[in-house]
Every structure is written in C-alpha cells, then in structure tokens.
Write a structure and sequence with these properties.
The chain has helices at residues 7-10, 43-55, 79-87, 104-108, 115-127, 132-139, 143-150, 158-164, 171-177, 182-195, 200-208, 229-272, 274-283, 285-297; strands at residues 22-25, 29-31, 62-65, 73-77, 92-97. The chain is an alpha/beta fold and 299 residues long.
C-alpha cells in the first residue's frame, strides 16, 4: 500500500540560502580543502581562468559563516574560481550565502552538459551576434573547434538528435552518424542507448556492420583497416541479428520483470514457511536451492 507523506506534519521548509548574494573579501574566505600543486596546470583550471577573464564570474561561489569566527566564511563550492580570482588580482567576490556547511550537493550532484546541449548554447550565442572569437576565448578553444561544435548536429536527423540530446556522446560519434542515412542514424542512436555505450569504438563497429545501402555514400565501398569485404559482410549479418534480439528482449522486458516480481514474492512466502521449507529441502532439494537463489538474487 502506498504511504502518503503528511506535508503539514513536516512543518515549514527552511530555505537553504540567503535570498541575496553578498560581496566578501577574498582574505576572509577559508577553503575547506587544499588545492593540489598540479591543479593550476590542468585543463579544467585553464578553462575556468579563460572564462572568468573573458566574461567574468558566471556562477558565484557558495560560502557559509564560520561558527567559530563570525568575520570569516567557509568555502563550500568554488575553490578553483577563488584561486583564479586571486591570480588575476581580484580582492572581492560575489558569493551565495548558505545556511549550513553541507558541501555534498555542490560537489556530487553536478549536471554535465551533453555535446548537443553545448552545441545549442553555442549556436544561440552566435545567433545573438556574439563574436565567435569571444566565445572561443571564453571556452579556451580555437575558433575552428568552436565552429565544429556549433555545427555538430548538421547532417543528423531530428529523431536521432532527440534521442541523444542528453547523452554524453563524444563529438566523433556524430561524425560517424553523418555517414549514415536518417533511418540508420535512428537505429544507431537506439543501439548506443540500449547498450549504454557511447564510445567511438562502439559507434565505429555499428558503422562497420551497416549495410552499404544505408550509407550516405552508398556507391563508395566501406574500407576499414584490417577487415576484408567478407568480414564486413559477416559483421553486417551479425549486427542485424543482434538488433532483432535486442528488440525482442525490449518488447517482453516489462512483462517479464512483472512476472519475476510476483513470482519472487510468492517464492519468498514458500521459503519463509518453516514446514514447507523443510519439506522441500527433504524431498526436492534441487527445487529448494533454486527457489532460495531466485529470492536472494532478485531482491
């Protein structure tokens, strides 16, 4: 039976942050963890530094008041941003003031941008006449790489884009998709999602197993290093069988899972009954072991 939560009994929800940001001297902010010696030479640090120099601080650091010293603040999130600001000579920073010292959320619950989400942001900025050079400097990439990111989904059908819009796909995967006709792009996107594998190697294997008629340049024979035409033909056949098998499993998965859940509950009652358990163990030990295995492994 569903258990409903009494929202009134929970009381008022306490706001975790101050409604307004505050400006704090950098000298009054104490980091809660040390910055490694090699961090400043890392790619991530350089990207943050370029972004702050070009467009300023986008996301304010999060601090809370030090309970022992009221004139200082503990830095919960934004250690690299603070280091960059110190390096460029800033003395103050605008911060978000937290009501407690919980730092787990900021460091563990992070939503990464997918390649398609990044492409849409870049494309929108270009549409609004932001100079490409400025965007490239903010992202710490060259203009050529920026243009490649901005045109990432050109040649990709809308259905495939919708399937992969929130998936962490490398850019090279989209280069592979462009070699396929739209219907094959959709099939490939579904294969990537079903396998939860978005690597370039897996996408290349799907390309190798794609029929010549499903390629954009169908008149140009596929050439893959180390593979003969016969091997490619066998791969196409095996991949087709794999797709059919996965589709069949998907069609019956929901019903099979429901049956397994109901069955497990029934077997749990049988195994949990002392008299029945003793009878099965004495007269049908092979069944008893299998029943216990199902109850334990499906939990």
């Amino acid at each position: 039976m569903n258990q409903y939560v009494d929202l009134v009994a929970l009381g008022e929800v306490v706001q975790a942050f101050s409604s307004d940001t505050i400006h704090i001297d950098l000298s009054k902010i104490l980091p809660v963890r040390a910055i490694g010696k090699t961090v400043k030479s890392s790619r991530k640090y350089q990207q943050i530094a370029c972004s702050i120099r070009e467009i300023g601080l986008v996301e304010p650091p999060v601090v809370c008041r030090d309970k022992q010293r009221t004139d200082t603040f503990l830095l919960l999130d934004g250690h690299l941003r603070i280091e960059v600001l110190k390096d460029i000579g800033e003395t103050q920073v605008e911060c978000l003031l937290s009501s407690d010292d919980e730092a787990f959320t900021y460091n563990k619950r992070v939503s990464r941008l997918s390649a398609i989400q990044e492409q849409r942001m870049i494309a929108k900025a270009i549409e609004r006449n932001v100079p490409k050079e400025k965007i490239a400097r903010a992202l710490d990439i060259n203009v050529r790489s920026l243009v490649r990111k901005a045109t990432l989904i050109e040649g990709i059908c809308e259905e495939a884009v919708a399937l992969l819009k929130d998936k962490m796909c490398p850019m090279a995967v989209f280069d592979i998709l462009r070699k396929m006709i739209p219907i094959r792009q959709i099939e490939t996107a579904e294969l990537l999602i079903n396998a939860n594998n978005y690597s370039v190697g897996y996408a290349s294997a799907i390309l190798a197993g794609t029929a010549q008629a499903q390629l954009v340049n169908s008149s140009t024979p596929k050439r893959i290093k180390g593979m003969t035409a016969e091997a490619l033909s066998r791969m196409e056949t095996e991949l087709s069988r794999l797709q059919q098998a996965m589709t069949s499993i998907q069609d019956s998965y929901g019903q099979d899972h429901l049956h397994l859940t109901v069955l497990r509950g029934y077997l749990a009652k049988l195994v949990g009954n002392t008299k029945i358990a003793k009878y099965l163990e004495r007269h049908h030990p092979e069944f008893f072991c299998e029943f216990k295995s199902i109850v334990e492994t499906s939990a």
